[in-house]
C-alpha cells in the first residue's frame, strides 16, 4: 500500500495563498502608484467602474461592496466629485443616502480604463494555448466560488434584558443620523428595558450589533404602545433587519395583549415609511407633540397577518 497523503497544514495553506497574492499583484501591475499607468489609483478606478456598472448605487452600498472605510471612501468620492467625474444626489427614498452616477466625463474615463484593462489581460492570455486559457478561466471561477461560499450572514433579533453599551451607541447613531431634537436619556432607556410591556430590541449581523428599535407603552391609550428609534447601520442594510425587528416588536406586543402600535416619522424617511405601510401601518391622527414628526401611523396587531419575508 502506498503511503497515505497527509493534508497540508494551515501554515502551508496560508503561505501558498500569500505567495500567489504576491505573484498576481506584481503581474497585473497593482503595485504601481497609478492604475494602468493612468491618472487614477487602483481604488479610484474601481470606484468609477462600480458606479458605471451600477448607476444610482448608494454610497453605503458601494462602501459595503468594496469593504472600504467610511471616511476613506467619503474623501475619494469628494475628490472624484471635484474633478467632475462623479455626481451625487439625495435619495428620494431615504434623505440620509446619496445616489451616485458618473458624469459624461466620468463615463469617458471609465470607457478608457475598460479598454486599457482589456488590452492588458488580452496580452496575458495571448501567449497561452486555448487549453491553458480555458483551464485558467475555469480555475478562477472555482476559486471565486470557494471564496464566496458559506458567506450567508447570521442574523439575530434580541430583546434586551439589561442596558448595555451597544444600545446606547446605536440609539445615539440614530439621533445623529436624522438630527433628533428630543432624545431619551440613558435612564429612560433603562426604564423601557425593565418595563414588562415595553422593550428594546437589537439586531445582530454576524454577532455584531447593527440595529435597534424601541417599543414604549402608551399609558394614555388603552392597550397601545409606540414604536420608536428604528435604525439599521448603513453598512448592514439590505439584509431585512428593519423588517425582522418590526416583526419581533409586533409579536411581543400581540403576545402581551396590546392591540395597537403607533409610530411617527417625517417626510424625508421615505424608505422607512414605505416599509411601515407594507407591514400594514395606516395613517392616523397626531397622537403626540413631537415637533419633528409629519407622519403618524398605527397598526392593529391583535391578530397575526401575513408579513413580509425577511429579505424584503
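^ Assign residues to that structure.
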Amino acid at each position: 500500500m502506498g503511503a497515505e497523503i497527509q493534508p497540508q497544514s494551515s501554515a502551508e495553506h496560508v503561505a501558498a495563498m500569500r505567495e500567489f497574492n504576491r505573484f498576481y499583484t506584481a503581474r497585473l501591475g497593482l503595485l504601481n502608484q497609478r492604475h494602468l499607468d493612468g491618472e487614477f489609483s487602483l481604488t479610484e478606478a474601481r470606484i468609477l467602474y462600480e458606479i458605471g456598472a451600477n448607476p444610482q448605487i448608494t454610497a453605503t452600498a458601494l462602501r459595503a461592496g468594496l469593504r472600504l472605510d467610511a471616511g476613506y471612501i467619503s474623501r475619494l468620492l469628494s475628490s472624484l466629485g471635484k474633478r467632475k467625474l462623479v455626481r451625487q444626489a439625495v435619495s428620494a427614498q431615504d434623505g440620509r443616502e446619496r445616489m451616485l452616477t458618473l458624469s459624461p466625463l466620468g463615463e469617458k474615463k471609465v470607457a478608457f480604463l475598460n479598454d486599457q484593462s482589456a488590452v492588458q489581460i488580452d496580452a496575458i492570455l495571448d501567449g497561452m494555448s486555448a487549453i491553458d486559457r480555458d483551464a485558467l478561466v475555469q480555475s478562477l471561477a472555482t476559486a471565486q466560488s470557494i471564496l464566496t461560499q458559506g458567506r450567508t450572514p447570521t442574523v439575530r433579533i434580541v430583546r434586551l434584558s439589561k442596558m448595555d453599551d451597544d444600545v446606547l451607541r446605536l440609539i445615539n447613531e440614530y439621533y445623529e443620523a436624522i438630527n433628533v431634537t428630543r432624545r431619551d436619556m440613558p435612564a429612560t432607556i433603562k426604564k423601557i428595558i425593565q418595563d414588562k410591556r415595553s422593550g428594546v430590541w437589537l439586531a445582530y449581523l454576524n454577532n455584531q450589533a447593527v440595529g435597534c428599535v424601541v417599543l414604549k407603552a402608551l399609558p394614555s391609550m388603552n392597550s397601545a404602545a409606540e414604536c420608536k428609534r428604528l435604525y439599521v447601520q448603513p453598512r448592514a442594510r439590505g439584509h431585512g433587519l428593519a423588517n425582522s425587528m418590526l416583526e419581533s416588536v409586533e409579536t411581543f406586543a400581540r403576545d402581551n395583549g396590546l392591540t395597537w402600535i403607533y409610530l411617527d416619522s417625517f417626510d424625508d424617511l421615505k424608505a422607512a415609511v414605505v416599509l411601515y405601510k407594507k407591514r400594514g401601518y395606516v395613517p392616523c391622527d397626531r397622537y403626540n407633540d413631537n415637533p419633528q414628526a409629519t407622519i403618524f401611523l398605527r397598526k392593529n396587531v391583535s391578530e397575526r397577518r401575513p408579513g413580509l419575508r425577511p429579505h424584503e
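The chain has two domains: 10-148, 155-300.
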